[in-house]
Amino acid sequence: MCIRDSDNTELGKEGKSKWRIISKSVTSAAYEDMAPLVQENDEIVHFLEEVEDLVDQELKENQKAIIKLRAKVHFKNEVSKMLMTQITVSYTHLRAHETPEHLVCRLLLEKKK
Question: Which of 38, 46, 106, 111 is 20 to 30 A from 56, alpha carbon to alpha carbon?
């Protein structure tokens, strides 16, 4: 039977005080033994927090780079769409869609020749 599990009548006042002294000394010794572990654990936690911050920073930079690349790709896609829509047509076809403004410009250009 453990000393702390025994009833109070067996221990008496002297036994209780010895138990308290033993308990306190064991507890303080355990804390002293654990101090390096606690310090090492704190260092590990601090290191992991720094790593997490670096990963977050890299992620933000990569996200910015991805946004820039997407913008470039979108621009190139738009340019290629515009270039693909420019197909050649005959002079007659152009004249069929000629507006009055175009007609005036064309006539003025022809007059200069």
Answer: 38
Q: CB-based contacts of 23: which residues, under 8 Å, 6+ apart?
A: 4
Token digits for 106? 């064309």
**Mind listing the pLDDT tens digit for each residue in 51-110?**
999 999 999 999 999 998 888 888 888 887 777 676 777 888 878 888 888 788 878 888
How many other β-carbons are positioned within 10 Å of the β-carbon of residue 15? Answer: 13
d(CA 16, CA 19): 5
16: part of which helix (H) or strand (E)? Answer: helix 8-85
